[in-house]
Amino acid sequence: MRTGMLALAAGLALLRLLPGLPPVWMLLLVAAGMGVLLFFDRLRPLGLLGLGFCWACLSAHWALDDTLADELSGRTFWLEGRVTGLPDRRDGVVRFELDSVTSRHPGLPTRLRLAWYDGPPVAAGERWRLAARLKSPHGLVNPASFDYEAWLLARRIGATGTVKAGELLEAAGAIEGLRDGLRTRLMKVEAHGREGALAALVVGDDSGLSSLDWRVLQETGTVHLMVISGQHVSMLAGLIFLVVMAFVRRGLWPQQLPWLPWACALALAGALAYGWLAGFEVPVRRACVMVAIVLLWRLRFRHLGIWLPLLAALDLVLLFEPLASLQPGFWLSFGAVALLALTLAGRLGSWRWWQGLPRAQWATSLGLLPLLLGLGLPVSLTGPLANLLAVPWVGFLVVPLALMGTVLLPIPGLGESLLWLAGLFSAWLFDLLQQIANWQPAWLAPSLSLLEWLLLACGVLMLLLPAGLPLRSLGLVLCLPLFFADRHLPADGNAQVWVLDVGQGLSVLIRTREHALLYDAGPRHGDFDIGERVVAPSLYSLGVDGLDMLLLSHADMDHAGGAEAVARSMPIRAVISGEVERLPPSLHARNCESGARWEWNRVRFTLWRWRDFKNSNQASCVLMVEAKGERLLLTGDIDRPAEAALLASGLDLTSRWLLLAHHGSRSASSAVFLAAVAAEKGLISRGLHNNFGHPHPDVLKRATAAGMQLYDTAQKGALTFELGEFDELHGLRESARFWRRN
After folding, report:
1. Do 573 and 598 have their domain in common?
2. Does any domain span residue 401?
3. Least enclosed by CB within 10 Å: which of 99, 227, 254, 309?
4. Both 460 and 556 in a single domain?
C-alpha cells in the first residue's frame, strides 16, 4: 500500500520538473495503458505512477488553456466578475483577484489578478463590471528571483491587468463580506502598531505588514509564523485537543461523552473554522487535510504509524490540486513534517519537551537546507534560535489571544483588550526578531550543480539518522560541496557579463576572475525594491558576495532605485555615479571621471561622462569594457546630443556588444551613433508592455538596418555571455519550463 501511495505522489509531483507538457492525446493513451496495470499486483505501483503523472499534466493543460493569448495581451476589455479573496490595499493601489469572469470577447481567462490605481474601495464577494487592460502571465527570469509565472499558474490566474474604469454591479453577501469586514475591524483596533500582524494571523491578510517586517521575518526564518500556514492550523487543532485532555484529567469532562471522539471532532472543527476564516488558500487546505488525517489516525488507526497518514495527505493534496507542486510552500511544509517524523519517531527512549523542541528545530533547519537551496530561497542562520523562541510565543500566546479577541469583539471592551494584549506580545516578538536579524542576516548561497546538490542532500540525511549508526559522520564530508561550490569564474583575460531581467530598468553584472562590477542596480517602486528582490539574490546565486565597484549611470529610480538594498546586502568598495548629488548620502558615491581607465585581470575598463549635460539622462556615466579585443559599450540613458558629444570625444567606440541607450527610447540610438559603434549584437533591458513604448519601432528599424542582432530581456529573461570568447549569448528564458512563454 505504501509503495503504491508513494508512486502516486511521485507521479503527481513530477509535473514540477517538466520542461514541456506531453500532448493531450498521448496522455490519454498512456493513462489507459496505466489503468490496465492496476489489475496486476506487481505492476500496480507503476500504474499509479503513470496515472498520477497523466492527471497532473492534464490539469496543467487545462490551466494553461485558460490563460490570455499573447495576441490579446496589452488590449483593454470590458468584463464582469466577482472579487475573490481579500483585496490588498496599499500605497493608493487596490490589488485583487476576479473570478468567474465573463465578457463579450472570447478567449478571456476565468480568473484574473488586477490592480486599480486610485480606485474606489473593493470588497471580497462584490461583483464588478470593469474596463481592464490585460497582460498575459509574465515574470522576471533571473539566476535567483521569485518565479511569478509559476505562482500565477499555481493559483490558476490566467492574466494580470490594470483597471481603467469600473461599475459595482452587486454588493457582497453577508457571508462573503464577513472576512473583509473583520479585516477592516482588526485594522482599527489599538494593538501597539501591530494591527497588520493580527490581521495576517486571523484572516490571512498580509497587506498590513511593511517591507521591513517582511525583511525581518525572512532574515530570521520566521515568515511561516506571520501568515496563516499549516503550522497555525495544526497548532490550533492541537491546542483544542490538549484543552479537552486537560478537562478529562481534572475530571471536568462530562462522563456521558467519550472524550477522544469529541477531542478529535472539536479539533477538526476548529481547524476547518480557522481555515475558512483564512480563505482556504492552498497552504491552508493542505493543512486541514493533514490535520483531518492525523486526527483520524489518532482516533482509529494509530497502529498504522505516521508515514501512512503523511503519504495519504500528500496524495490527497496533489490529487485535489496538482499545480500545488509549483509552490515552494508545498515542498517546505511536507518536508518539515517528514523531517519531524523522521527525527521524533522510532527513537529509543523518550524526550522531555525541553529536549524535543530544540532537536525538532535542529532537524527541520538542517533537513530543509537542501530544499531551500534547490528552490533558490535564503537560508536563515539564526532560524533555529529564532523559531525556538517564536514558535511557542506565537502558537501559545499571540494566536490564541488574537482569535479569542476576534470572537469576543461584539462584547464591548473585552475583545479589544485581548487584541491589545496580542498586539503587545506581537510587538515584543518583532523587536526581538529585529535584534536577531541585525546580528546575523540570512545567507544566500551560490547555486549548486545537480551533483553537488545530491551530495549535500545525502549528507544531510545521514546526519539526521539516529546517533550510533555506522558511517553517520560521513554526512559531514558529503556536505562539503556547500562550501566549495563551483562559482564558474571566467578565465583570466575574460569577463562574464549578466544583463539581469529587472523589468523597466537596468542592472548589468561584469565579473572578471577576481573582481566584480555592477552597472546600475535596478528600479524601486515604493516598497517593491528590485535591488532587494532580484539583484542581490542573483548576485549571491552567481557566487558574488561583494562588489569592487557599484557604478550607477545616473540617479533615476529605474537605474539607482535598488542601490541601497544592494549596499545593505553585501560589501562594496567604491560607488561611482554620473549624478552623485541626487543619490542617498549613505552610498558615499564619487563622481564619474570622464577618461578614467583601469584593468582587472587583463580586462580593460574605460569611463566617459558628458561635462555639458543639461538633464539627468545626459549625465549618465558610460562604461566600455574590453576583453581580448572584444568590447561591450554600456550607455545608460544618454540621448542623441550626448551621443554626439561621445562621438566627438575621440574615443574608439567600435564594439561587438552595445546596450541600446534608455531602454530603446526614440530619443537615443541615432543612425550616426549606431554606425560609429558598428555593433554586431544589441542588448535591450526593459519591461514587457511598459507604458513608455520601449523599444521604439524606429530604434528597432535603425538597429536592424545597421546589421545588429537584438536581444531583449523582456523576451529572453536575463542575458549572459562571456566577453573575450566572441561567443553567442544565452537567455535564461530559453531554459524550458512548461509554464513559461518563450
Report:
1. yes
2. no
3. 254
4. no
Instruction: Assign residue 126 the CATH number of its domain.
Output: 2.40.50.140
Q: What is the pLDDT of residue 348?
A: 45
Mean per-residue pLDDT, 666-671: 93
pLDDT at 717: 95
Inside any domain, residue 316: no
- Dihedral sign, Cα of residue 578, residue 582, residue 587, residue 590: positive
What is the spatial order of strands in the sheet that 622-627 belongs to?
597-600, 603-608, 622-627, 630-634, 657-659, 681-684, 709-712
pLDDT single digits (tens) 87-126: 888 878 899 999 999 999 988 999 999 999 998 989 888 9
**Helix, strand, coil share (%) of the chain residues, nearest 5:** 50, 15, 35
Q: Where are the alpha helices (DSSP H) in 204-258?
A: 211-219, 223-226, 230-249
Are residues 551 and 615 both part of a single domain? Answer: yes
Q: Which three-class secondary structure state does DSSP give residue 729?
A: coil
**515 in a domain, yes or no?**
yes
Name the nearest CA neighbour of 78 among 171, 152, 148, 169.
169
* Residue 601's CATH number: 3.60.15.10
Q: Does the pLDDT value for residue 188 go beyond 70?
A: yes
Please name every residue paired with 551 in a beta bridge, in sequence order, or none if there are none.
519, 576
- pLDDT score of 303 more than 80: no
Whether residue 149 is found in the same domain as residue 10: no
Given a cut of 90, whether residue 229 has pLDDT beyond it is: no
Helices marked H in 518-655 — which ranges?
A: 530, 536-541, 557-560, 563-569, 640-648
Domain boundary among 12, 47, 65: 65
Same domain as 58, residue 25: yes
Distances in whole angstroms, Cα of residue 47 to Cα of each of 9, 29, 53:
12, 13, 10
Contacts of 465 (CB under 8 A, 6+ apart): 472
Q: Are strands 730-731 and 719-723 parallel, antiparallel or unpaired?
A: antiparallel
Per residue in 304-341, is it b (16+ CB within 10 Å) or e — as a string?
eebebbbbbbbbbbbeebbbbbbbbbbbbbbbbbbbbb
Q: Are residues 579 and 470 in the same domain?
A: no
pLDDT of residue 176 exceeding 80: no
CB distance 630 to 603 below 8 Å: no
589-599 pLDDT, tens digit per residue, is 999 999 999 99
532: in domain: yes
The residue to which cell 500504474 is assigned: 47
Give yes or no: residues 45 and 77 share one domain.
no
Instruction: For residue 171, give every residue at least 6 positions away whose Cβ sits within 8 Å of its Cβ, in sequence order, or none.
Output: 125, 126, 177
Q: Residue 639 is placed in which grid cell? A: 540621448
Residue position matching grid coordinates 524550458:
736
Contacts for 246 with CB less than 8 Å, ≥ 6 apart: none
One domain, residues 140 and 10: no
Find how far residue 652's CA is from the centre of its chain: 43
Domain count, the chain: 4
> Which among 154, 176, 198 is the end of a domain?
176
Alpha helical stretches, state H, 603-732 = 640-648, 671-677, 697-705, 713-716
Please report which residue ranges of 440-512 form alpha helices under DSSP H: 450-464, 474-478
The better pLDDT of the pair 376, 66 is held by 66
Mean pLDDT is lowest, of 115-124, 474-483, 605-614, for: 474-483
Position 452 scores a pLDDT of 85
The domain containing residue 689 runs over which residues?
495-734
pTM higher than 0.90 for the full model? Answer: no
Name the 3-class secondary structure at 665: coil
Return the higher-pLDDT residue of 630 and 380: 630
- DSSP element (H, E) containing 161: strand 159-170
